[in-house]
Amino acid sequence: METRKLVLLFVAGLAVTLALYLALAVPGDWFPSAKARYWTAKDLRLARGAANLNDGEWVLQSPDANAVIVLSGDAALRSTDYRVMQWIAVGLPPGAEVQLLWRTDYEPARLNSIRVPVESGRLRPVVVDDNPAWIGRITGIALAVRGPLVQPVRIRGAIAKPMGAAEVLADRWREWFAFEGWSGTSINTIVGGADVQDFPLTWAVAFAILIALGFYAGLRWRSLRDRRGIVVALVALTLCGWLLLDARWTAALVRQSRETARFYGGKDIEQKHLAAEDAELYQIVQRAKQTMPATPVRLFVAAEAHYFRGRAAYHFYPHNVYFDARNDRLPPASAMRAGDWLFVYQRPGIQFDRSQNMLRWDDGQTHAAEVKMIAPGAALFRLM
Amino acid sequence: MDAARLILAWAVVWIAGVALVRRVYSAGAADRVPHPAWMAGAGFLAGAFVLTLVMRGVAVAGGPLALRTVGVVMVVLTLALWLPELRRVRAWRMAFFDAAGWRSAPWPAARILWYALLAWLAVRYALLLGEVLRQPLFPWDAWTQWGTKARVWFELHHMVPFVSAITWLGGSTSGYVDAAPHYPATVPLLQVWSSLALARWDDAWMNVPWWLLGVALALALYGFFRDQGLAPLFALTGTWLIVSLPILETHVALAGYADLPLACYLTVGALAGFTWIRRRTWPDTAVALLFLCAVPMIKIPGWIWLATLVPGLVAGLLPRHGLRIVVFGWVAAIVAIFLLGRYEPTIFNYRLHFDLNVPWHGLVEAYLSFANWHLLFWVLPAILLATRDRVVSQELVPLTVVVGSGALFLLLGFSLTSAAIWVEDQSTVNRATLHLAPLLAAWMVLLVHRALTARASEKAPQPAQAPEVTPALPAVPTVDA
């Protein structure tokens, strides 16, 4: 079979894949008349608990395990028009207990709820139209989050969706082509778009190839014993799919390249470090190094976050740095010697008694020291 | 000026490596000199590894790590290896263009496609180079266990030892410590060489060798495929499939980890070994051994990857019973690992346990859902099914066995050790797989080529002496010379 026909088979396979997916994913009419309804953070109000509206986001933080934070918004929706509710939130801890709440004009006194699943720190969309309490006119919506929330959770808004075919496809498109950007996990895994995807593009392309192979077999059923033809079809269809995925990856690289150029383009290495995400720490370390001897000395680094311990140590080389890469634990005082140095960055639990020139840290350990530099959240000591 | 110094420094390394590989092959049968693209790719890998050996040698001899020591040795080495080759340069250049195979290309569109694909790859590599040059050392381990050593050795001009935290806390006065003091020196030494050339610490530009490794891998793969009889467009398509893997390119862009160098040396070493098994000439042996020596000197798990090559050797050298011995060995290895697992020993920082716990969810996400591998693991079973009669053919069985051993190692490693957690959280699964992936993909390309060639030959009329027939793929048409 010639190349053009195989490419057409791939396109047909892709179309059938998407059609099958829509048949499974669209909960009702493919072409509903209602439009999506949005609530921005400003449209929501704090009904219970503590949270701040900051820069277009509600920031929720509560270390109390029993704390419940509720954000609510007014609504006037026909329940039959809207099948899915989605809250835009990031930073939720795994296993967080989150509920969507709503009231209706059918039973105004009753508060209805449904659990919202959390995945990769985000909230999954919730299908509501099969819930018996999603009835009549929806008069108010709310989101309830139960603590503890040690790290801040950011709520950007909510969307009520009719979930027609076009909307489902648009959602998938956004997920497939969302900008991933380099992060600390990029070296380990490339998701390919949004962190959470209902139907990854890789699956869609693979199914398209499978279906196209099925078409091929149907068209060539008389000569299926010709395995060469099957290999040729398999290779050609794979190349089509690969090219599609590779185009997405190239586009992501182009976008990443622009981002990297925006941050670091035209800068020397010093300026690059001053533009990097740990710029504040870098500056403090450079200040500290000016206080220290030019020849390498033994140096201990203490910071609560292992990221800052490692980064601080890295910037201090070629001094002879000790840092615990895994645990926030200072070595015993017996391992420290007069003439050694200690750098502390955002590390609670280390005290310095200026009157006695004495450092004290975990388990009541002490060591004589003199302070050499103080900066916001940081200090450099020379041990005596 | 900085760019010129960096280019010059790595050009010396590359030229030395190409000259070395060229000399080795020239010393063998003159008609068996590999494709120039292979020479160029393998040459860079050889040069970079030899550079790190020279640096180690200088350090052992008590000399400082400096341009005036390492640089001089490299330049002398380059001249010594290259001068005898100078008179052959013209012939070599002619060979390159002959090897490209375009003079008698039967299908002009194939040439256009070849150039289009080359341009596509060029754009990608340009983007990757921009990332390498602009971004300071970014990924985690790069600044906790690799770049740390490079910084210290560059600034102090000698390879001071890195010792364990216990030794350091015990009062070691000369040793340094970082997150992995026992890791090999090869990768940091590459960064030291860049820094010596720049004469300053620049943790973005020092990572240029990662980009060069990416280019060298592409060149070596293309040359290998051409030597294996693949037409230019087929060979370049195969190369593109391999070097376009997003996780591989991420390791170029976010340079600083040892996984990409390990993958490059393992792939090129295994392919050189495959060539040796087929041709049995000593230059192939020498080149394969050079690359395979580098594998455990890049990362400690390299020892296990070396072990996975042994079954391939057995299968290749003992065509009659080799495969049976290998299968028996695999079964014995699985039983031994299960028995060992009862005692929960720790091997290379991985704790073995008895319970088979395949982290399916993590594996499916890594291999099939996420973008790491494009369609590689989706297509693998289909290719195996469609080319099943080639998989254990006498020619390809050594590669099949090596890939099978590697896959078995990964699967057992992920299922029977503490690494299972790192599969579920996606922290290790792709990096460990990256070591094997280019070789796996190269083997798949060869399987397809052999299946198509064999079937084309079977279909062709069988006169007294059948003409050599090359496959006629629609998407990857052949335009062989």
Descriptive labels:
heterodimer, A: 384 residues, alpha+beta, Jelly Rolls, 7-stranded mixed beta sheet, 7 helices, flat, B: 481 residues, mainly alpha, two-stranded antiparallel ribbon, disordered C terminus
How many strands, what sense, and barrel or not for the largest sheet of chain A? Answer: 7 strands, mixed
For the secondary structure, the number of strands of chain B is 2
**Would you state the CATH class of the largest domain in chain A?**
Mainly Beta
β-strand amount of chain B? under 5%
The helix count of chain B comes to 21
Helix and strand run of chain B: HHHHHHHHHHHHHHHEEHHHHHH
Reported by name, the CATH topology of the largest domain in chain A is Jelly Rolls
Number of helices of chain A: 7
Element-level helix/strand string of chain A = HEEEEEEEEEEEEEHHHHHEHEEEEEE
Q: Name the helicity range of chain B.
A: over 70%
**Overall tally of domains of chain A:** 3
Assembly state: heterodimer
Measured by residues with Cβ under 8 Å of the partner chain's Cβ, the largest interface is: A-B, 69 and 79 residues
Given helix and strand content, the structural type of chain A is alpha+beta
| Portion in strands of chain A | 25-35%
Total strand segments of chain A: 20
Rg estimate of chain B, integer Å: 23 Å
* Structural class category of chain B: mainly alpha
Describe the overall structure.
- The complex is a heterodimer of chains A (384) and B (481).
- Chain A has helices at 3-25, 165-177, 201-219, 227-264, 269-275, 279-291, 306-316; strands spanning 37-40, 45-48, 51-54, 57-62, 68-78, 84-90, 97-104, 112-115, 118-119, 122-123, 126-127, 137-146, 149-161, 298-303, 320-322, 341-345, 351-353, 358-361, 365-375, 378-383.
- Chain A is α+β, with helices and mostly antiparallel strands and 384 residues long.
- Chain A folds into 3 domains: 1-31 and 168-265, no CATH class; 33-162, Sandwich (Jelly Rolls); 273-383.
- A 7-stranded mixed β-sheet of chain A has the order 15-14-16-20-19-18-17.
- In chain A, a hairpin with a 2-residue loop joins β19 (365-375) and β20 (378-383).
- In chain A, α1 packs across α3.
- The termini of chain A are far apart.
- Chain B has 481 residues and is mainly alpha-helical.
- Chain B has helices spanning 2-27, 36-60, 67-86, 89-100, 108-134, 140-156, 165-169, 186-198, 208-227, 232-243, 246-253, 259-279, 282-298, 302-317, 322-341, 360-369, 376-386, 388-391, 397-416, 420-424, 429-459, and strands spanning 346-347, 350-351.
- In chain B, α10 packs antiparallel against α21 and α12 (259-279) packs parallel to α14.
- Chain B is globular.
- At the A-B interface, α3, α4, α5, α7 and β15 of A face α5, α6, α7, α11 and α16 of B.
